[in-house]
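Pasting two entries for a bug report.
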Amino acid sequence: QVQLVESGGGLVQAGGSLRLSCAASGRTVSSYTMGWFRQAAGKEREFVAGISWSGGRTYYADSVKGRFTISRDNAKNTVYLQMNSLKPEDTAVYYCAETRRMPAMEVSEYQYWGQGTQVTVSS
């Protein structure tokens, strides 16, 4: 069973940047699609970005396209989310997750989840 641990969240001003990391342990995730989701207070968890096992294919929610970049380093068993030009509406708990499907943008398609990291963007 894989364990996923997110890090890199914090408080940032609007227009700033953060880089989230998702470190996997227990086994390799190099054969799996990985995704980032977020959940704002009082709202449902929503898809943010996904990346194929090789990193050769990425896809994004329209709300973050052009601002966020997902990447992975299979040698380090880690997935990243570079977030630029952050907006107050990006404030949420960010989760990484693993799936065998590609593409996959629904919460129900992912099997393993991390505990999340808080991102707060002040105006």
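Entry 2 (this is the one that rendered wrong in the viewer):
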Amino acid sequence: VQLQASGGGLVQAGGSLRLSCAASGRSFRSYAMGWFRQAPGKEREFVAAITWSGVNTYYADSVKGRFTISRDNAKNTVYLQMTSLKSEDTAVYYCAAARIFVNNDQSRYDYWGQGTLVTVSS
């Protein structure tokens, strides 16, 4: 599976942005997906995860209520809708795929995208 993240950019605090992660391969619908982020000088951290069916979603406390993860298996794409953005959301955002659902355990994700930069100005 190859992953291509896109949709990053510069946005003002309080604004919204939607990230997309396009996956290659016919087996996309069988993978659990996750979003992670890495801010400058910090370790990569979990943001959100979604099961293969899209029925179950999970979020980091820092984004709960502001971010929404979703997927369209027909389009081989997973999304991260981000609202009420804060300066502390500034980071490179990565999507990842896992053969089994591993939630926030990034060491167990099998495939990673290249990342897309989100910059929130205050």
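Dev reply: Rendering is fixed now. As a check, the viewer should reflect this: The chain has a mean pLDDT of 96.
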